[in-house]
Amino acid sequence: MPGTLYMGGGYASDSVAEARGWLTAVDAARGTVRWRYRSPKPMVAGVTATAGGLVFTGEVTGDFLALDAEQGRVLYRFYTGAGILGGVVTYAVNGEQYVAAASGGGSYNFGREGSPTVFVFSLPATAKPPSLPLPQSARR
Predict the structure, then answer these.
(1) Total domains in the fold of the chain
(2) Quick one: which of 63, 97, 106 has its CA closest to 81?
(3) Please, which residues bridge with residue 102 across strands?
(4) Count of other CB atoms within 10 angstroms of residue 114
(5) What's the domain range around 118?
(6) pTM to 2 decimals?
(7) Residue-level pLDDT, tens digit, the chain, 140 residues
């Protein structure tokens, strides 16, 4: 019918009490699921994967997450106080890696609206070999 939205199927929402979220990692070469992370509430935040084997995202519960890209284990969790609904970005300044995520300010937060805030995290530098003292002949 002209003017009617048609999506090719049905749609039904879970109640707020029953709604859950999933982050699913798919092996693009094989088309198989590598791992799944289950969240207690729907996940609407962006997901950022890095070449260093980390995956960053957030939950409407207010938790910012860093996961192991290989197995999906949560390596770091930080409660921001309000739902994370937008993108997660990573960038470097003077060789130091940062990750930023916006928290709060949305209406799809299941009661955790909070003040809009950007959280910025720095990643630990990779371990460098210890510096050895120079031989006497090189100290000039």
Answers:
(1) 1
(2) 63
(3) 118
(4) 16
(5) 21-123
(6) 0.76
(7) 788 877 777 777 778 788 889 999 999 999 999 999 999 988 989 999 998 899 999 998 899 999 999 999 999 999 998 889 889 999 999 888 999 999 987 665 555 577 888 999 998 766 343 443 444 443 33
